[in-house]
Amino acid sequence: MKQEYAVIGLGRFGGSICRELCQEGMKVLAIDQDEQRINEFKNIATYAVIADSTDEKTLLELGIQNMDHVIVAIGDNIQASILTTVILTELGVKKITVKAQNDYHEKILNKIGAHQVVHPERDMGRRIAHSLISSNILDYLDLSDEHSIIEVMASRKMVGKTLIDLDVRAKYGCNVVAIKHNNQINVSPRADLLIEGDDILIVIGSNKDLARFEKELIAD
Ligand code: ATP
After folding, report:
1. Among 52, 56, 73, which residue's Cα sits nearest to residue 117?
2. Do residues 68 and 44 make contact, with C-beta atoms less than 8 angstroms apart?
3. Phi, psi angle pair for 68, to nearest 5°
4. Gap from CA of 134 to ligand 1 centroid (Å)
């Protein structure tokens, strides 16, 4: 059965989530208090409704409690974002993802029971910063405050060597969890596998260790 989503707040972030979900064929209820925004999404979302998400009765009438996943993408109005999240948790919504504006907002959202808190501007900033350090760094993902995963293109220093030669674990404290070769992914690669020119390595470690790994093995 198709998953049912609700997106509350149709700014650039919420709007783009709503568009993508609809494009992927999901059922999406789009909610915004602004009539103009709702008009924009009338022909995109499955349902588009003008409503104030801080009004519990209205949310209940819209059947929000039956949604598989609700995304709260209210921007500047932190109070409305928090109040909406409280109502959704009290109604027992299965999965609630909320966009945070800053670290304090994020802390509160975690405390009041949001299942996932996203911080798109900060996360994208970090990713871009890492790709600026080296064009070999293709992606960067926070696992916690202290640990991350990076996806890196095999650098000059790696090509023609094995994981034993590079001794990544002992030298940098990081683990190569997978190597992508010609679109095939090799999970837990053997230590004697030879790294080739177009290979992509997926590496996990503490931010401190990854920074050393990036600086010594991949920086241009
Ligand atoms: P971005 O455009 O980058 O996503 P943003 O996160 O600041 O920026 P806004 O432009 O502030 O997003 O958009 C948030 C949307 O949320 C607006 O369309 C606004 O009308 C809507 N919104 C704010 N409060 C409520 C509320 N209580 N109920 C429903 N919609 C709301």
Report:
1. 73
2. no
3. -75, -30
4. 35
77 lines ligand 1 (CB under 6 A): yes
Q: Report the alpha-carbon distance of residue 89 to residue 163 in Å, rounded.
A: 47
Q: How big is the CA angle at 127 (ends 82 and 130), to the nearest 5 degrees? A: 145
Q: Across the 220 residues of the chain, what is the mean pLDDT of every consecutive 10-residue run?
A: 92 97 96 98 97 97 97 94 97 97 93 94 84 81 86 93 93 94 91 93 94 83
CA-closest candidate to residue 72, choices 44, 109, 126: 109
The amino acid at residue 6 is: A
* Residues comprising the chain, all counted: 220
Question: What is the pTM for the complete model shown?
Answer: 0.77
Q: Whose CA is nearest to atom 15 of ligand 1?
A: 9
Residues 6+ apart with CB under 8 A from 167: none
